[in-house]
Amino acid sequence: MIYSLTGTIHQHIADTTVIDVHGIGYWVHRTPAAKNAWPLHSTQTITVHYHVREDAHTLYGFESSEERRAFTMLLSVSGIGPKVALGIIANIRIADLVHAIQTGNIMLITQVPGIGKKTAERMIIDLKEKCLEIAPPSTSNTPSPPASPSTDTQPDTDDIVMALRQLGYQKDEIKRVFMAHAPKLAQMDTIEDQIKILLKYL
Q1: What is residue 48's predicted lDDT score, i.e. its pLDDT?
Q2: What is the pTM of this model?
């Protein structure tokens, strides 16, 4: 099992980085933020996950061991593969992810490409206890009450996005505000209240 690689950042190609370790180039998949943290020609120690399948052996690299633990945890959820798990880490801060799982914030989780409502519900059920081992959840001034992942109590994300799109807002704008104000949105009980919060920042 490979835990980390120490070497020189040789090249960035799309969503991957090549790190030269004693003359051997290792191709590592990473988040966009990691590219900025690993300048070309700098010496870095990269925490990695070595993923093995029948048809491929792939390295995934992270800025911290916390990110790596979150990635491994996400892989334990049925329906989440390495590409989607990396996308979650790229789009949601680890503390916000823990908070979203703890409070049942399906709305935030489903903003990540490749994550639908059913997968988000499965994440919440499977990871509610495990996620606290990774990082404490982000907090706000008012504690959020525990939430159930039941579709009866969760706002319909599609309805919220559709309502805001009809008001002329673009999906990227809506996603940006979702991500920035996730803890506050998690405290709202109704779609109307969440839309009001979103409109303040759009």
Answers
A1: 97
A2: 0.71
